[in-house]
Design goal:
By secondary structure, this protein is α/β, with parallel strands linked by helices. The chain has a domain of 117 residues: Rossmann fold (3-Layer(aba) Sandwich). The protein contains 9 helices and 10 strands. The strands form 2 sheets. It has a 6-stranded mixed beta sheet, with helices on both faces. A 4-stranded antiparallel beta sheet has the order 2-1-4-5, covered by helices on one side. The longest helix has 17 residues.
Length: 261
């Protein structure tokens, strides 16, 4: 497959922390229009890899390519403006603003009007209309005028995705989107991610292997900072090295261990 088919790539990506190598020679290729999961047991280097891709850390070696462009030296805000936007494992909303206001702040950033509080009421109304569209898209339109801190946990994560979508990303990076959710919220959020992925690429770090199996087109498994396996879920889940990495035994793996991955 040609490199042009991949919207995001890493080549030889490596990160050392004072003699400890957290990520070693990772070659990742994320195909346009797919949901790609980055998984692995605790300490595998998933979060470090995510932080490198989104430029919250600088690599020790290797390069990161976005749509064929080398973005290795760019700061996080510049990468986000290019269309590579991240949501976080811990919900990152403004707790004391309304749900609508949270999305409107993100829209102000997208339109370059952040902090322009003196702008006309008409421009604010335009932002309100788009904000409401996004809230309905993620299923929290009825909470628009509630304070964000009052939202149930799963709906707060949906709000975070709405604020991320307000930046109009081409590639959406989700850091453990199901963390801390009950079964009902997981089902709702899975459906949301599937809808979001209709017209963009999604790269996610996720511990819940049932969700990974359901959503992902392709999976990269990390162990001890290196790529252990890559491929579609049915193939990867039968890989003896992957089973060993997760379980440490010959017992295999897509069920109970998901929450401990």
């Amino acid at each position: 497959m040609a490199d042009d088919d991949y919207v995001l790539q890493t080549k030889g990506l490596t990160k050392d922390f004072r003699g400890f190598t957290a990520v070693r020679n990772v070659n990742l290729r994320v195909r346009r229009g797919t949901i790609h999961a980055l998984i692995g047991p605790n300490g595998a280097g998933k979060t470090t890899c995510f932080n490198l891709i989104t430029k919250f850390l600088m690599p020790t070696a290797g390069i990161i390519l976005y749509k064929g462009r080398d973005i290795t030296a760019l700061p996080a805000h510049a990468v986000a403006r290019l269309g590579l936007v991240r949501s976080f494992q811990i919900s990152a909303v403004f707790p004391h603003l309304s749900v609508l206001e949270n999305v409107r702040v993100a829209l102000q950033r997208a339109f370059g009007t952040s902090y322009h509080f003196w702008r006309s009421e008409r421009s604010v109304e335009v932002l309100n209309a788009r904000a409401m569209e996004l809230l309905h898209d993620v299923g929290v339109g009825s909470y628009a005028h509630a304070t964000a801190v009052e939202l149930p946990y799963g709906r707060k994560r949906a709000l975070e995705i709405a604020t991320t979508l307000a930046l109009d990303p081409e590639v959406l990076l989700l850091d453990e989107p199901m963390a801390g959710m009950g079964a009902e919220d997981i089902g709702r959020t899975s459906a949301l991610i599937r809808r979001v992925a209709n017209d963009r690429t999604v790269l996610m770090v996720e511990h819940n292997l049932s969700v990974v199996a359901d959503l992902s087109h392709r999976i990269t498994v990390l162990a001890r900072g290196e790529v252990l396996a890559e491929g579609p879920y049915p193939e990867v889940s039968r890989n003896a090295q992957v089973i060993e990495a997760y379980m440490g035994t010959g017992k295999g793996g897509t069920g109970e261990e998901a929450d401990h991955a």
